[in-house]
Amino acid sequence: MSGKVTIADVAEKAGVAPSTVSLALNDKPHVSPETKKDVLKAARELDYHPHSAAKSLATGQSETIGLLIPIELTSVFSSTEFFQKMISGMHRAAGEMGMTLSLQIVESEDEAIERIKYAARTNSVSGSVITHPTTSMPYLDILKEYKYSTVFLGDPVENLPYVDNDNIDVGRMATEHLLDHGHEKIAMLSGPEKFTVSRNRLMGHRSALENQGIFFDEDLVWESDLNEQSSYEKVLEKAPEYEFSAMFVSVEVQAVGALRALRELDITVPGDVALVVVGESELSKHLSSPLTTVDLNTEKLGYLSAKKLIRIIKGEEEEPQLIVPADLRIRESCGCKKSENPPGGGKTFSASD
Predict the structure, then answer these.
(1) Domain count within the chain
(2) In a domain, 2, yes or no
(3) Alpha carbon of 85 to those of 15, 29, 49, 260, 300: distances in Å?
(4) Distance (Å, rounded) from C-alpha 272 to C-alpha 292?
(5) CA distance 351 to 353
(6) Which domain holds residue 17?
(7) 283 — phi, psi (to 5°)?
(8) Based on the domain organization, do 285 and 216 belong to the same domain?
(9) Who has greater pLDDT, 18 or 100?
(10) I want to staple 306 with a disulfide (CB 3.0 to 4.6 A). Which of 41, 93, 160, 166 is the partner?
(11) Residues 294-338 pLDDT 10s
(12) Contacts of 227 (CB under 8 A, 6+ apart)
């Protein structure tokens, strides 16, 4: 058949009315299984694909899901490998479930409100995965008002659908590893307090110390923004003031800045300071002293968050929370023996072990 295939062509081939084709392709009731089978066969043989805008009008849903990242652009561009893995997982899940993915970067939660309103009013996006939930999240009322389908990638402050690691356990795992190697004065480079992930990892860090009867020193918790320059400036400022033998860097993007500052201060890793970083990247494997990391399995986080969102959009039952295990990957930066930690490899211990 030459030219663009239409719904009328499918109807003629299947021997049904165009309205029946629409009902069958959109999985609506009142179409017998036999008729639906004939319609799908005809559509497949004619290579017919419904126009996305027309399908949106017919179903009341867009074929697009959004990824809403409400943080500053500098932080997004500093965390390119993290977001590449996350988006890769989301793209794969969307493709498997017949949807497309739209990236929506906003630099504030107020801007997120306007983006959510627009998506809900125009039906341009059926729902969104929202990253970096905070302890306030002013856009929650808008989500409820518009009944906008949402899955958080991170632990929100209310009982809402989300996919995440157990970040209290992530903080505890990293700190316990350092404690097990004899370190008691452990500096923590934390993300901004407003993010729930920062709060939870700090809780895990503190819990690990107190569980072993070690005093939690607030002066050894250094907060920086989620970019290399901020972490560099914070470590450069704080490291000369305090005595510490190990450092827990709670966000992958902070590691580059922290290492740069330590190098300028002539503090070697792991000779002077043992280091554990949350987040697995190519950088982790290829430094002169490859980094011991807590691998968040970021691509899996993205994949499962997109899949959960699409199931919610389709009205399928879903558990509100989905926790992805994190894995400790031991390399040289924590001071373990070199023979146990080949570059690019390293021992692995799961959070569930």
Answers:
(1) 3
(2) no
(3) 46, 38, 30, 25, 8
(4) 15
(5) 6
(6) 7-50
(7) -55, -40
(8) yes
(9) 100
(10) 93
(11) 999 999 999 999 999 999 998 886 778 999 999 999 999 999 754
(12) 72, 74, 75, 78, 253, 257
